[in-house]
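Lab notebook, bench 4. Still working through the backlog of constructs that have no structural model yet. Next entry is a single chain of 157 residues. Request: give me the C-alpha cells for it.
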Amino acid sequence: MALTKINNNTLSGITGLPSGVGGKILQVSSFVQTSSTQTLSSGSFADLSGVTVAITPSASNSKILLISNIASNLQNDEGYGMQFVRGSTSVYATLQTYSIYGYGITTLYNFNNFQFIDSPNTTSEITYKVQVRSHQGSAVIYNTSVNSNIYLIEIGA
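Model written out:
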C-alpha cells in the first residue's frame, strides 16, 4: 500500500470546519495561582484569591469550557464546595458545602478538578472566577502544597 503525503500548502488553506460542524478550539486563557496560602472559613461562597481569568469570545454562539484545579489542605472533618462565577453570576456550583471532604483524616492534601461548559452568548470580554465555601464554617487552607489554577477554552459552536 502506498502512503500519500499531504503538503503544507494544502493544510494552510483550511481556515475552519464545514458549516454545522462544531467543536473547534478557538482560544485558551489560563491562570495559575502563585500567591501564598489562603485560609477561608465561610459557609457562604467567597473568592479564592486571584483564581480569576478573562476571555473575549470570538463568536456569540461559542461555548466556554471552564476547568479549575483547586489545591487544599483539609484537616480532621473539614470540607468545601466551589462555584464558577461569570461576572457576578454563578454558572455552576457544587450542590453541597462538602463536595470535597476530609472524612476524619488528620491531614489531607487535595488537588480537586472541576469542569463546566458555559454558554455566555456574547463577544464582549467576560471574567470568570472560582469561589469556595467551607462545610459548617470550618477553616480550609488553600494553595499550601500545590497552586490552584483555572483554564478557559473557547469552543466553536
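Notes after review: The chain has one helix and eleven strands. The chain has a mean pLDDT of 82. Flag for follow-up if needed.
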